[in-house]
Automatic annotation (TrEMBL):
Domain of life: Bacteria
PANTHER family: BLL5662 PROTEIN-RELATED, BLL6692 PROTEIN
Signal peptide: none
Residue ranges with Basic and acidic residues bias: 100-115
Protein name: VWA containing CoxE family protein
Segments of this protein annotated with the region Disordered: 86-126
Provenance organism: Candidatus Viridilinea mediisalina
Length: 360
């Protein structure tokens, strides 16, 4: 009875494909052994089906499939020839008892091999045949609770900033008189009883003025991206006529800065000298809520600033990038009370409410 099985054929084909460069591992070999039957040789009607199954498991590209088809036929023919030879061969002799190999015996074997002019074995083929096979760890996904939420905080998107600035308008009809006024034309036609020609009105222009005071560095560093987007969208992506941006650290003092690096000081009085009652002013700062401190000196400096602002304009509001629940027991809680409801959380709703306050 033959000792050659389908497992032997799959292993031979597996090693041959690895020698030709296919990245196959033990996982791939076991996957094929689980779908083939051990009876050998396979019936004629099942031979082609097994070839397609094995190729589907081991090959993942057209080049690999071509190599597989080229090696399948000779390997399968050799396996059948070995099966026939195993059937016709005489029963093997019992193995001879092992004898210990000494140094002299090894030298004698080496001399006999040299005298018989045996061709040397190919080291690359032997290394490819007996090299350790890669081991693939099966992929096991960790179950994730559907109620799980990442602890990230995203104050407001740039697109929402651009959209919200559109509502900061102070329209004044002082542009060119080139807008067709349908209502006035109809009223004049009714009044005179005949059509006397179209009537026009002046074009409205947005005369809104905005001053941004942005807290910089320190606890506001994680929010620099949002404050930068807030300034650039107001300056370059809105219809606001005049926008000024100034920076401070922690609390505004007698001097602000015209650059985010806090190197060009500008006197606060010179900034407020250009303000009118229609100037909108927006302050962006965490007010101490990021670190949860309550600093009396910060509260006093902010209170002094608010009193100074009220003498020039009442259209001012405060945006806090920290969530509202983080304001408790910090300087931001006291500053929010001083503002009398004019401090808002820097999110979509809070930004819209701040725009409503500073455009009144």
């Amino acid at each position: 009875m033959s000792s050659f099985t389908a497992t032997d054929f799959c292993v031979d084909l597996f090693l041959l494909l690895r020698q030709h460069g296919l990245a196959l591992g033990l996982k791939d070999l076991f996957a094929v052994l689980s779908i083939v039957e051990q009876k050998w040789p396979w019936p004629t009607d099942e031979h082609e089906e097994y070839r397609l199954r094995i190729r589907l498991v081991w090959c993942h590209a057209l080049a690999e499939e071509q190599l597989f088809d080229d090696l399948w036929a000779p390997t399968f023919a050799d396996a059948l020839q070995e099966e026939v030879g195993a059937r016709e061969a005489p029963p093997p002799l019992p193995p001879a008892p092992p004898r210990p190999e000494t140094h002299d015996t090894l030298e004698q074997q080496q001399d006999e091999r040299e005298q018989s002019n045996l061709p040397p074995s190919d080291p690359s083929a032997a290394a490819a045949q007996w090299s350790p096979l890669p081991f693939y760890v099966p992929l096991s996904l960790v179950p994730v609770d559907e109620q799980f939420e990442l602890g990230s905080y995203w104050p407001i998107a740039r697109r929402q900033m651009v959209y919200a600035w559109r509502y900061l308008r102070r329209p004044v009809a002082d542009g060119p008189c080139d807008r067709f006024d349908l209502d006035a034309t109809l009223a004049a036609t009714i009044r005179y009883g005949l059509y006397r020609g179209p009537l026009y009105r002046r074009r409205e222009r947005n005369h809104a003025q905005l001053i941004l005071l942005l807290d910089q560095n320190g606890s506001m560093m994680p929010f620099h991206r949002f404050t930068r987007d807030l300034a650039t969208t107001a300056q370059y992506e809105s219809s606001i006529e005049h926008v000024e941006v100034y920076y401070f650290h922690n609390a505004p003092s007698a001097y602000l800065y015209s650059d985010p690096h806090l190197t060009n000081p500008v006197a606060l009085q010179s900034i407020l000298a250009t303000c009118t009652p229609n100037t909108s002013l927006l302050i962006v700062s965490d007010g101490g809520a990021a670190r949860g401190y309550r600093r009396p000196e910060r509260i006093r400096a902010t209170r002094t600033l608010l009193r100074t602002l009220e003498r020039h304009t009442l259209l001012h509001a405060w945006l806090n990038p920290m969530p509202r629940e983080r304001w408790a027991d910090s300087s931001a809680q006291v500053i929010a009370a001083l503002l009398q409801g004019r401090m808002f959380q820097m999110d979509e709703d809070g930004f819209s409410q701040a725009i409503d306050v500073i455009r009144m």
